UniProtKB/TrEMBL annotation:
InterPro entries named in the record: Pyridox_Oxase_FMN-dep (IPR024029), Pyridox_Oxase_N (IPR011576), Split_barrel_FMN-bd (IPR012349)
Organism: Rhizobium beringeri
Name used for this protein in its record: Pyridoxamine 5'-phosphate oxidase family protein
Transmembrane portions of the chain: none
Signal peptide segment: none
Source taxon at top rank: Bacteria
SUPFAM superfamilies per UniProt: FMN-binding split barrel
Length: 216
């Protein structure tokens, strides 16, 4: 595939040019941004089993990481503070390293079946406070640390993206079997996947075993 090159004639390079393409912001879109976790935001967070957290390092390299757990896994500690448990992963620690370098984070909370989402921006700190971690145990296993976010902005995001994508519509669900397994995708793009189907199946099975052993 040939590399795409952007025509500089059509690049938007300043805010005035950008805003000239759009109508004025609706008043409600401005008013909805709050500095604290209100009643409805608190309830939304208590229902959410999934969020994405966006971070950047000092050089501006961005990362977005999914976080999922039983409903209500994120704890609202007060109207300006929430805590996210860090569960076992692949130990790349991209999000955590970024937070140490640059503590500004953005969160997107999602509830299955809801087209609205909740956006939270703030300042994150990593903590190993044993009392806080004990309250986040699952299957008697406490997380090694938690991400505590001091909230600066909280607001509901409208349903347009989810409705356009038909994300929750079973009629638009795709068959996962139409693409290779996660292990095969990684190997295809790195060292090369085995050509023997039985060996590939064993590697896929090993990943499933690892999921069950290390989920919490």
């Amino acid at each position: 595939m040939n590399r795409f090159e952007l025509d500089p004639e059509f690049a938007i390079r300043d805010e005035q040019s950008l805003r000239g393409l759009f109508e004025a912001t609706h008043a409600l879109a401005i008013q909805k941004c709050q500095a604290t976790i209100g009643q409805h935001a608190r309830e939304f967070i208590s229902r959410s089993p999934f969020l994405c957290i966006g971070t950047q390092d000092l050089d501006g390299k961005a990362d977005v990481s999914p976080r999922g757990d039983p409903v209500g896994f994120v704890k609202v500690l007060d109207e300006r503070t929430l805590a996210i448990p860090d569960r076992p992963g692949n130990n790349r620690l991209d999000t955590l390293v970024n937070i140490i370098a640059n503590p500004i984070v953005g969160l997107l909370f999602i509830i299955p079946g809801f087209d609205d989402t909740l956006r939270v921006n703030g300042h994150a700190t990593l903590t190993t406070d044993p009392e806080l971690l004990a309250g986040m145990s699952v299957n008697d296993r406490a997380p090694k640390l938690a991400i505590v976010v001091e909230v600066s902005e909280v607001y509901m995001h409208c349903a347009k993206a989810f409705r356009r994508s038909h994300l929750w519509s079973p009629d638009h669900f795709q068959d996962r079997r139409e693409m290779p397994s996660l292990v095969k995708i990684i190997l295809d793009e790195t060292t090369g996947a085995p050509t023997d189907a039985d060996e590939m199946r064993r590697m896929d099975d090993d990943l499933e075993v690892a999921y069950k052993r290390t989920l919490y």
